[in-house]
Amino acid sequence: MTRRRILVTSALPYANGAIHLGHLVEYIQTDIWARFQKMAGHEVHYVCADDTHGTPIMLRAEAEGITPRQLIERVWHEHKRDFDGFHIAFDNYYSTDSPENRAFCEDIYARLKAAGLIAIRSVEQFYDPVKQMFLPDRYVRGECPKCCAKDQYGDACEVCGATYAPTELGNPYSVVSGARPERRASEHHFFRLSDARCEAFLRKFTQAESRLQPEAANKMKEWLGEPGEQRLADWDISRDPPYFGFAIPGTDGKKFFYVWLDAPVGYFGSFAEYAAKRKAAGAPLDEEAFLRPGHDTELVHFIGKDILYFHALFWPAMLEHAGYRTPSKIFAHGFLTVNGEKMSKSRGTFITAESYLRLGLNPEWLRYYYAAKLGPTMEDIDLNFDDFVAKVNSDLVGKYVNIASRAARFIAKTFGGELAYVGDTQPLVQDALECARLAAEAYEAREYGRVVREAMRVADRINEQFDRAQPWNLAKDASRRVPLQDACSRALFGFKLLSVLLAPALPRLTQRVARELFGLGRDFAWSDAGELPRRIGPYSHLITRLEAAQAGALIEANRESLQPAPPPSQQRHAEHQQHVAQGAAVSQDETISIDEFAKIDLRVARIADAQQVEGADKLVKLTLDIGTETRTVFAGIKSAYAPESLRGRYTVMVANLAPRKMRFGVSEGMVLAASGEGPGIFLIAPDAGAQPGMRVK
Fold first, then answer.
1. Residue 189 and residue 251: Cα distance in Å, rounded?
2. How big is the CA angle at 82 (ends 300 and 503), to the nearest 5 degrees?
3. For residue 611, what are the β-bridge partners?
4. pLDDT (average), residues 309-313
5. 476: Cβ–Cβ under 8 A, 6 or more apart, which residues?
6. Full-model pTM
7. Are 492 and 486 a contacting pair, CB within 8 Å?
8. DSSP secondary structure letter of residue 530
9. Comparing C-alpha atoms, which of 543, 539, 544 is closest to residue 404?
């Protein structure tokens, strides 16, 4: 066997939120593949890092009253805790906010610039006059320029799938402040992806070298178009301050690398730190061989299909023309649905890794279930809780562990742990080696579901043979101890084979099997599949059943709970509560009962129309659609929102507020907005999918 040298990565989780079960699809998939390669005797280094730069990090830290570095330090520990809890065995887990990553970013940029692949030109983009910052694409929303769908992101429409520039949106507004953004010009740095050299390289990389899955290669061909079409656009790799990230050299801190430039470079930054730690520990590795072309090493990325564009176009083109090695393989996977639907906080199916572990659920239950579902395509997989419970209990408890729990009892009680076989064992060993060969092929191809199916087929056969031997009857007859020992020994050899096959998916359980039951003093290697065991240690319980109530508790723990209404200092209608804007404070100690809160009828409302109010300095007249009727509300939000920017937006209103007669008409309710000590009024908006008339509770 030729020993491979592989650098394996998973996409970097963003340091702006918790790890959830959707994220874990990727990390479990990668971890299984890396563990298998290590078991097969290859040199494998699995690295990852937190993705820590960008506007969302900066804004969240500001909202929490801490620095961005304090935020990312805290989140790093939370992410690492969750990954450790699910036995994700990174060789190194780092941060993109590191000196190693900065050095790689600056080197790559300098090399691209020397190659004539960096262009600087003025662009017009949206600027938030309230927040005084240029807005990233995802911080602008408005009407899709293609299908006119309301409230779409500034870079892509979730309704029709179109992509566009944020300046093409109709009735745009800032997600940060709610204000209508202004168009302003700024000089930006571009990676010239449209250059003929990049196009020629990418056609070869994505189409002729089998580095992508077939469906991914087809998607790249669609994006590249036919030769000569020049569909690739130059990539804006810079951002304006304020911005949390690395300053671009030579710009005096006035331009920063866009987070999507330094994030994938973070793979190299993490590997460099890992190499330095290895060297300090007296176990150096050849760092250059993994980062530069011309070596017999591999670079394998596991990613979600939503970031394929960045990893299969921008990233390899950037590496190729900066003199770095390009990815050997890019494996993209689909998304996770739960009970057949998109993950939902209201339904309790947006489940965090931390909550799963806190409730005491075995992480290997989920690892096994994902393995059973995962294949080599970009298809989504579904976590169905009824199926989850049934599969764990049927496969892991009822088939796999059941073999050891039955056979080991007889061997320990009657034979003192000694195993012995009757007749020729060569066919037994050959069958095991063939099973291992087929499983190895499946693991290599990421067909984990095929491994699980084959393992359960073997488990069924072992259980059937054990039942036919009827060891419980053999044990009653002292003259039949030889066939009893043979039947139990063969069953335990089968259990050992299954443990080897399932070890990448069940690392902690199979570690116990290898060390405690079979006394290896180490974890399983792939070569153990064909080795007949001669003795076992005492058997102890290996796994418990998954109860339906546990799955139900997990959903309930993640369901959005009712919270007391926030204090009026942070939630108000500008006209009805002017005293808040004037600095009136509400004590944080004031509370209300749930019964009092229930008296407030909060409804999702669509702003069907918005008009100026003649003679009013602060008011906008809103016509609100709440499903069964429309209401007129006068809102004091004119300083933050132009009426035309509000039409079609969704907000929340108090529907059972007594009508108030005003000089300009009757106000039949109140919309909710937030404000703080600084400038800015921020209209409260529901999550995507909410419909007019829905109760907010």
1. 10
2. 60
3. 621
4. 95
5. none
6. 0.79
7. no
8. G
9. 539
| Neighbour count for residue 450 (Cβ, 10 Å) | 19
d(CA 649, CA 645): 8
Token readout for 74 is 């805290």
Asked if omega into 284 is within 30° of 0 (cis), the reply is no
Query: Do 361 and 316 contact (CB within 8 A), yes or no?
Result: no
How far is the C-alpha of 660 from the C-alpha of 665, rounded, in Å?
A: 9
Contact 209, 327 (CB under 8 A): no
Q: How far apart are CA 190 and CA 576, in angstroms?
A: 48
Segment holding 114, helix H or strand E: helix 99-114
Q: Which residues pair with 650 in a beta bridge?
A: 606
Contact (CB, 8 A) for 417 and 536: yes
Q: Do residues 243 and 55 touch, judged by C-beta distance below 8 A?
A: yes
Residues 30-39: pLDDT tens digits? 999 999 999 9
Give the integer Cα–Cα distance in Å for 446 and 618: 60
- pLDDT the model gives residue 689: 61
Residues 6+ apart with CB under 8 A from 576: 657, 660, 667, 670
Integer Cα distance of 452 and 494 in angstroms: 15
Cβ–Cβ under 8 Å, residues 539 and 417: no
Tokens of 194: 């449209």
Burial tier of 205 (Cβ tally within 10 Å: 0-12, 13-18, 19+):
buried
Q: What is the pLDDT, as a whole number, of residue 599?
A: 79
The backbone torsions φ and ψ at residue 386, rounded to the nearest 5 degrees and listed phi first, read -65, -45
Alpha-carbon Rg for the chain in angstroms: 30
Indicate the pLDDT class of residue 344, thresholds 50, 70 and 90: confident
Provide the sign of the torsion angle of the four alpha carbons 56, 62, 64, 66, taken in this order. Answer: positive
Q: Please, are residues 169 and 143 in contact by the beta-carbon 8 Å criterion? A: yes
Length of the chain: 697
Structure tokens at 685: 């908006």
Comparing 191 with 566, which gets the higher pLDDT?
Answer: 191
Q: Grade residue 629 by pLDDT with cuts at 50, 70 and 90.
A: confident
The tokens 């659920």 sit on which residue? 361
What would you measure as the largest C-alpha separation in the chain, in angstroms? 107
Q: How many CA atoms lie within 13 A of 38 on its CB side?
A: 19
